[in-house]
Fold this sequence. Notes:
Blueprint (H helix, E strand, L loop, with lengths): L6 H27 L5 H9 L18 H14 L1 H21 L2 H12 L5 E4 L15 E5 L2 E12 L6 E7 L9 E7 L5 E5 L11 E12 L3 E2 L5 H37 L1 E2 L2 E2 L4 H29 L5 H26 L1 H4 L5 H7 L10 H13 L25
Parallel strand pairs: 1-4
Antiparallel strand pairs: 2-3, 3-7, 4-5, 5-8, 6-7, 9-10
Amino acid sequence: MDFELTEEQRAIQDTVRQFVDERVLPNAVENDQNHHLDLGVIDGMAELGLLGIVLPEEYGGSGLDYVSEALVCEELERGENAFRTLMSVHVGLNSLSLLHYGTEEQKQRYLVPQAKGEKLGCFGLTEPGAGSDVAAMRSTAVANGSRYILNGQKTWISFADVADHVLVFAKTDPDLAHKGISAFMIERGWPGVTSRDIPGKLGAWAGSTGELFFQNVEVPAENRVGEEGEGFKIAMHSLDQGRFTVAAGALGVIRACLEKSVAYSRERETFGQEIGKYQFVQDMIAEMVLGYETSKLLVMQAAFMKDQGVRNTRETSLAKWHATEEAFKAANLAIQVHGAYGFAAEYGIERYFRNARAPILYEGTTQIHKMMQAEHALGYRELNGPGGELSPLVSWARTPTTV
């Protein structure tokens, strides 16, 4: 067992850490308060090769491993949630799905410019009446000769107003529930495709979250990703990739809150001593330490399995569930440590608190992940494919499949 990072992994970690310190954090509070997405930072991410980090070099990517991706996502969300979110939707949900299921023509047309950061991609699955219940989606794609006619609406789509390409899911056979869902690559500039930003959000103010509308959009048949009816399988594969980056990003929130709380506890004095000397403050610091360490181990376990090419739905689910809950907990504790200053926008702590709430909801709510883990343990579901294998470190006995 080797916990040491390679020189290449250390180098990418240091590079992105410096990038966040110099390009993200100095303007993070201002951009958040002004609801401003800094496109210049995204250009910088593209220049560093981050928008194609785990994609093969033959398709314009950087060809790095998933441990490196986890380290990058941690550093990005230490700075600002919006830029880790871009890694989730552009790389995890969209590009990696194209890599796995796309045709060579689709890869050359869409994946290559996305990997190079020349075009941005997003992911259109959630609808007003279909979140956790994917089969309830109402968007349809009706075959019409060499085209499909797409109609429907998607909501809570990160970068809906900014992305060039959208991986959209719609029903090609509404009578087959989840087995009737298919996937398509859509260009946002096509006739009939419109988008709008969602105002009044609790957090993610410096990001882009919106809705997509499709009105009689003519989609060439060659833009269907995978076979008809494979959409649900593709979506679940996509979520495995996106959830991993969400979990890794949550580490950045925990670490930022921990580092800021430690610094403040050493600087702030009450009754003649540093507040870090008080056991109640130490208790909060200790909780953040535990949250960070346990979350990081779960994320790196999933990264190890991904780098080995092993199915990791269960392990990624665990990491996403635990890390996002711990991030919100750490942000809450950090506000408590900072007192009234934690409540003030200028200190940036409340920004982490607001931004840490949404990841508990998207890409599988905590309750969905609890259900997945319990059903896997009980033998009702095989998250990692036939046999329901567990990670190499796990030795508890799993109940054989009975249902």
